Amino acid sequence: MARVATKIEISNEDRATLLKWKRSPTMPQKLVRRADIVLAAAEGLTNKAISGRGLGSVQTICLWRRRYAEYEKGEPKTGRPRKIGRDKIAEIIATTLTPPQGMTYWSARRLAKQVGVGHSTVHRIWQAYDLKPHRVETFKFSQVPVEREVR
After folding, report:
1. Assign residue 103 a region: left if phi > 0, alpha if psi is -120 to 50, beta otherwise?
2. Range of 20's domain?
3. pTM of structure
4. pLDDT in tens for each of the 151 residues of the chain?
Protein backbone atom coordinates (compact mmCIF):
# COMPACT_ATOMS: atom_id res chain seq x y z
CA MET A 1 0.00 0.00 0.00
CA ALA A 2 1.46 3.34 -1.07
CA ARG A 3 1.77 6.14 1.44
CA VAL A 4 -0.11 9.34 0.81
CA ALA A 5 2.22 12.32 0.41
CA THR A 6 2.11 14.96 3.11
CA LYS A 7 -0.04 17.86 1.97
CA ILE A 8 1.91 21.11 1.78
CA GLU A 9 0.31 24.52 2.11
CA ILE A 10 2.58 27.54 1.83
CA SER A 11 1.87 31.01 3.14
CA ASN A 12 2.39 33.91 0.74
CA GLU A 13 5.42 35.03 2.76
CA ASP A 14 7.05 31.57 2.57
CA ARG A 15 6.24 31.32 -1.13
CA ALA A 16 7.93 34.67 -1.78
CA THR A 17 11.00 33.55 0.19
CA LEU A 18 11.21 30.21 -1.65
CA LEU A 19 10.82 31.90 -5.04
CA LYS A 20 13.56 34.39 -4.09
CA TRP A 21 15.85 31.48 -3.17
CA LYS A 22 15.02 29.70 -6.43
CA ARG A 23 15.88 32.74 -8.55
CA SER A 24 18.98 33.84 -6.65
CA PRO A 25 22.25 33.24 -8.51
CA THR A 26 24.24 33.19 -5.25
CA MET A 27 22.02 30.86 -3.19
CA PRO A 28 23.58 27.44 -2.48
CA GLN A 29 22.19 24.82 -4.85
CA LYS A 30 21.02 22.55 -2.04
CA LEU A 31 18.69 25.31 -0.82
CA VAL A 32 17.50 26.00 -4.37
CA ARG A 33 16.67 22.30 -4.80
CA ARG A 34 14.79 22.23 -1.48
CA ALA A 35 12.83 25.33 -2.47
CA ASP A 36 11.95 23.67 -5.81
CA ILE A 37 10.76 20.55 -4.00
CA VAL A 38 8.55 22.46 -1.55
CA LEU A 39 7.10 24.68 -4.29
CA ALA A 40 6.32 21.67 -6.46
CA ALA A 41 4.74 19.89 -3.50
CA ALA A 42 2.60 22.97 -2.83
CA GLU A 43 1.36 22.79 -6.44
CA GLY A 44 -0.07 19.38 -5.54
CA LEU A 45 2.37 17.23 -7.52
CA THR A 46 3.08 13.70 -6.36
CA ASN A 47 6.49 12.62 -5.15
CA LYS A 48 7.07 10.66 -8.38
CA ALA A 49 6.18 13.67 -10.51
CA ILE A 50 8.55 15.89 -8.54
CA SER A 51 11.26 13.25 -8.82
CA GLY A 52 10.62 13.16 -12.56
CA ARG A 53 11.61 16.82 -12.74
CA GLY A 54 15.10 15.79 -11.68
CA LEU A 55 14.96 17.27 -8.21
CA GLY A 56 16.02 14.09 -6.44
CA SER A 57 14.89 10.61 -5.61
CA VAL A 58 11.42 9.85 -4.28
CA GLN A 59 12.96 9.32 -0.84
CA THR A 60 14.58 12.78 -0.95
CA ILE A 61 11.29 14.37 -2.00
CA CYS A 62 9.47 12.61 0.87
CA LEU A 63 12.13 13.77 3.32
CA TRP A 64 11.90 17.45 2.39
CA ARG A 65 8.12 17.39 2.12
CA ARG A 66 7.94 15.93 5.65
CA ARG A 67 10.54 18.35 7.06
CA TYR A 68 8.70 21.34 5.67
CA ALA A 69 5.43 20.07 7.15
CA GLU A 70 7.14 19.67 10.55
CA TYR A 71 8.64 23.16 10.21
CA GLU A 72 5.18 24.58 9.58
CA LYS A 73 3.83 22.89 12.72
CA GLY A 74 6.64 24.45 14.74
CA GLU A 75 8.04 21.10 15.84
CA PRO A 76 11.60 21.26 17.14
CA LYS A 77 14.42 20.22 14.85
CA THR A 78 16.22 17.01 15.57
CA GLY A 79 19.83 17.03 16.61
CA ARG A 80 22.07 17.03 19.58
CA PRO A 81 20.93 19.36 22.37
CA ARG A 82 23.20 22.20 23.39
CA LYS A 83 25.47 21.55 26.34
CA ILE A 84 26.41 25.19 26.85
CA GLY A 85 23.44 27.45 27.58
CA ARG A 86 23.04 31.15 27.00
CA ASP A 87 23.87 31.88 30.64
CA LYS A 88 27.23 30.13 30.37
CA ILE A 89 28.00 31.93 27.09
CA ALA A 90 27.17 35.26 28.74
CA GLU A 91 29.44 34.35 31.66
CA ILE A 92 32.31 33.52 29.29
CA ILE A 93 31.87 36.81 27.42
CA ALA A 94 31.66 38.83 30.65
CA THR A 95 34.73 37.12 32.06
CA THR A 96 36.63 37.76 28.82
CA LEU A 97 35.87 41.47 29.11
CA THR A 98 37.24 41.72 32.67
CA PRO A 99 40.99 41.65 33.30
CA PRO A 100 42.43 38.44 34.77
CA GLN A 101 44.24 38.56 38.09
CA GLY A 102 47.94 39.29 37.54
CA MET A 103 47.82 38.89 33.73
CA THR A 104 47.37 41.25 30.81
CA TYR A 105 44.80 39.17 28.90
CA TRP A 106 42.91 35.87 28.96
CA SER A 107 44.12 32.84 27.06
CA ALA A 108 41.49 30.36 25.92
CA ARG A 109 42.89 27.66 28.18
CA ARG A 110 43.11 29.89 31.25
CA LEU A 111 39.57 31.17 30.76
CA ALA A 112 38.27 27.66 30.12
CA LYS A 113 39.77 26.49 33.40
CA GLN A 114 38.26 29.51 35.18
CA VAL A 115 34.68 28.96 33.94
CA GLY A 116 34.77 25.16 33.77
CA VAL A 117 34.46 24.43 30.03
CA GLY A 118 36.79 23.18 27.32
CA HIS A 119 39.25 25.56 25.67
CA SER A 120 37.80 24.80 22.24
CA THR A 121 34.40 25.93 23.52
CA VAL A 122 35.89 29.24 24.65
CA HIS A 123 37.62 29.60 21.30
CA ARG A 124 34.37 28.94 19.37
CA ILE A 125 32.53 31.53 21.48
CA TRP A 126 35.28 34.06 20.89
CA GLN A 127 35.06 33.44 17.16
CA ALA A 128 31.26 33.69 17.15
CA TYR A 129 31.34 37.03 18.98
CA ASP A 130 34.53 38.29 17.30
CA LEU A 131 36.40 38.60 20.59
CA LYS A 132 40.19 38.84 20.42
CA PRO A 133 41.56 39.29 23.93
CA HIS A 134 45.15 38.89 22.72
CA ARG A 135 44.90 41.99 20.51
CA VAL A 136 46.67 45.00 21.99
CA GLU A 137 44.41 47.57 20.27
CA THR A 138 41.21 46.32 21.81
CA PHE A 139 41.74 44.25 24.93
CA LYS A 140 45.10 44.28 26.61
CA PHE A 141 44.78 45.48 30.17
CA SER A 142 47.86 47.33 31.37
CA GLN A 143 49.49 46.31 34.64
CA VAL A 144 51.27 49.67 34.88
CA PRO A 145 49.37 52.29 36.90
CA VAL A 146 48.46 55.33 34.86
CA GLU A 147 49.86 58.58 36.19
CA ARG A 148 47.85 61.57 35.15
CA GLU A 149 49.11 65.08 35.34
CA VAL A 150 46.75 67.39 37.20
CA ARG A 151 46.61 70.96 35.90
Report:
1. beta
2. 12-73
3. 0.50
4. 456 676 788 889 889 988 999 898 998 988 889 889 989 888 888 888 888 888 889 898 988 888 888 776 655 666 788 888 999 999 999 999 888 888 888 899 999 999 999 999 999 999 999 888 877 665 555 566 656 555 5
CA distance linking residue 142 with residue 136, whole number of Å: 10
Please compute Rg for the chain using Cα positions.
25
> Going by C-beta distance under 8 Å and a sequence separation of 6 or more, which residues neighbour residue 18?
10, 35, 38, 39
- Within a domain: 2: no
Cα separation, 92 vs 51, whole angstroms: 48
102 and 54 share one domain: no
Q: Are residues 36 and 61 in the same domain?
A: yes
- Provide the number of structural domains found in the chain: 2
Cβ neighbours around 29 below 10 Å, total: 7
Q: Is residue 1 part of a domain?
A: no
